[in-house]
Amino acid sequence: xxxxxxxxxxxxxxxxxxLIGWLTGTLGPIGIQLPDDIFSLPGIFSLTTQVLxxxxxxxxxxxxxxxxxxxxxxxxxxxEVFQVLRDRGAMGLWEQVQEQFNDLKxxxxxxxxxxxxxxxITAGVKWIIGLLNPASAFVKAAMAIYDIIMFFVNRGSxxxxxxxxxxxxxxxxxxxxxxxxxxxxxxxLSRALPVVIGFMASLLGVGGLAKKVEKIIGSVRERIDxxxxxxxxKAKGLFKGKNNKEKPDEITQNDKSKxxxxxxxxxxxxxxxxxxxRKFEDFYKKKENQGEALEDKYQPKLNKGIKxxxxxxxxxxxxxxxxxxxxPNATYKNATIxxxxxxxxxxxxxxxxxxxxxxELVNKLKDLKTAGSSKYQNELAExxxxxxxxxxxxxxxxxxxxxxxxxGNIHFGTKEGIEMLTELDVFTQEEMIEVKGGNYxxxxxxxxxxxxxxxxxxxxxxxxxxIYLNGNEITxxxxxxxxxxxxxxxxxxKDWLLxxxxxxxRTGI
Length: 509
Hints:
- The chain has helices at 2-9, 11-23, 41-52, 56-67, 69-78, 80-88, 90-97, 104-131, 134-154, 156-174, 178-204, 209-218, 221-243, 253-272, 280-298, 346-353, 358-371, 376-391, 448-461, 491-499; strands at residues 307-316, 319-327, 331-338, 396-404, 410-411, 420-428, 431-436, 468-469, 472-473, 479-484, 504-507.
- By secondary structure, the protein is α+β, with helices and mostly antiparallel strands.
- It folds into three domains: 2-216, no CATH class; 250-338, Pantoate--beta-alanine Ligase, Chain: A,domain 2, CATH 3.30.1300; 346-507, Trna Endonuclease, Chain: A, domain 1.
- The protein starts with a helix and ends with a strand.
- The model is unreliable at 26-31, 135-140 and 142-159 (pLDDT under 50).
C-alpha cells in the first residue's frame, strides 16, 4: 500500500520521467541513465551529453588530438578541471560551461514536447477516424496485432527490466522487509510507465519518435563541442602555470628500465588472473578494481613526481584494451585482455551431454579453451543458447549438428571426407536457432558465407531439404531464430532477416 501511495504522491515526476524514458529507451550505445531532476538545466545537460556520447573518454580524446598524449597525461595529474571531469562526468563539465547553456530547456525539452504533442495528437485523430470505417477498422486491428508483436521484440529489454523489478518487490514483501518493499513497489510502477507509454505509442503508430528526439538533441552538439574546446584551453593554461613548480627528480636510465619492468609486471598480473565471471561487464569492473590495486602497490616504488596510471577501455564484447603510463618520462605499455568467461559448470556440461550432439559440443569447448582459440567464445555462446532452450523446457532434438549435403543425415563432431550442407546450432521441436558472434553493427544484410548458410537453413526450415537423425526424418520447427551474441546489431539487418523469413531476431547472450 505504501508503495502505491508514494507513487501517487510523485505521479507528476514519474510521468515526466516515464515520457523521457520511453523517448530515449532506444538511444545511446549503453542505454540512458535518467537524472533525478530531469527537467532542471543540469538534468537536461546530463541527458543531452549521454545521448551524444560525450563521456570523459570523449573529452580526453579531444584533448589528446589538440595537445598530445604526454601533455594530457600531465594535465590529468595536476589540473583540477581534468580530475573533476573524470570523477563527475557530465556534471563536472556542467560546472564549467553552465553559463553558456541557460537556454537548454527551450532548445531541447520544449522542442521535444512540441514534437511529441503534435505527433501523438495527429496520430490519435487519424486512428479514431479510421475506426469509423468498418473496413478500415479491420485493417487497424490487423496492424495493432503486428504493432503489439513488434513492441515486445523492440522493447524486450525494458519489459524484462520491469518484470525483474516486480519480482524484487514481491521477494522483499515475502521476506518481511516492508519498508524496502514500499520503495521497490514505487520503482516497479515507475519502470512500468515507459513500457506502457511505448505500448500505446506502438498502437498509435508513433513508436519511431526516438530518432527524431536524437536529432533534436544532436542540434546542440556543435555548441557543446565548442564549450569543451574552451574548457580544454583553460586547462592547458593552468597546466603551463604548474608545469615548472612540480618537477620530478632527475630520471636516470636505470629509472627508465625500472619503469619498463613495472609496466610489464602490471600487464602480466592483469592477464594472469583468469576470469570466473559470467558477464563481460562484471569482468570489466573486476579489472578496473585490480588496476587500482596495482596502482596503489607500485606507485610507492616510483620517485617523487612520477605518476603511474592504469587505464582500461572496452574495445569489443570480449576484449579490453589496457594502457600503462608512467610519466613524465613517457613510458607507455599497451595490451589487450581477453574475456574467456567462466565456461560451463560440471552440472551444465552433464545437462548438455544428455542430448544428441551435446557431448561433442562440450568436448569441442574444452579443446578450444585449452588451445586458446578465438573460436571459443562463439562455441560458448552456442552452448549457453542450448542450455537456455533446455531451461525453457524445449523438446530438444539435437545441438551442433552438421547436415550431410548428399543425404541430409545429421552428424556430430568432425567427419572426414563428407561434404556438409550447413550446421544447425540449436534444434528443438519448436525452434531452429542460429547463433552468430562478431560485429554486425554496420551490416544491412548477410553476405558471403553467412548468406550461403542462411540460404541453406531457409531450405531446411521451409521443408525443401529433408534432414534425418538416426534414420528418422525430422519435421521442421515452427520458429527460425537468429541469436546474435552482441547486444546491438544494425536495425537494417534485423529488418532484412525478418523480411526474408526469419521468425525472430534476438541479441545479447
